[in-house]
Design a protein that fits this description.
CATH superfamily of the largest domain: Tetracycline Repressor, domain 2
CATH class of the largest domain: Mainly Alpha
Helix content: over 70%
Oligomer: single chain
CATH topology of the largest domain: Tetracycline Repressor, domain 2
Number of domains: 2
Order of helices and strands: HHHHHHHHHHHH
Structural class: mainly alpha
Number of helices: 12
Distance between the termini: 53 Å
Length: about 210
Amino acid sequence: MRRTKEDAEKTRNAILEAAETLFLEKGVAHTSLEHIARHAGVTRGAVYWHFANKAHLFNAMLGQVRLPPEQLAERMRGCPEHDPLLTLRALCIEAIENLARDPQKKRIFTILLRRCEFTEELREAEERHEAFINLFITLCEQQFSAPTVESRLQPGLSPRLAARSVHALLIGLFHDWSRDPNLFDPLSDTAPMVDACFRGLIRDWPSAAALMPG
């Protein structure tokens, strides 16, 4: 039985690796489960045994990397006494820097943002993606709504608009870097760009020197 479980896990991982390779190469809409089965060296039946459909497989692939909404929710629960904006800032920087540090995360985000056409077949995956976007914006809005934060917002900005600005920054940087990695260096350029965004949102945002670890 143990050998059977180990073999099943190896087969599942092979299918996920094949899907990741082909989605990146051909695009999600132009990759069939038959293509994935052939590339993984397994039968279509084996693919369907592990994954009910392409949307299920696509979601399992996304599940291999942690997305910003999950990380933000975890951090805010674990560190309620910390400055919510510094926690959010750290998450934004880490999310972009990890594109350079984690090749699989770069591949999967490139598939999600640049190689995925949300057809009817992927309606379930599209709904999940939209739910993650809305969750992230809602979590960000909660941080900007904190009593110690909302009073510091720039005139005319609501917590909701501030949250959407942070989301737009992240998605823009994800898109740009996955399109052309030479546009900026995630490891050296992310913090200044994130701070420029927060400086436009928060009247008394600290200077770069004050934000340096030390």
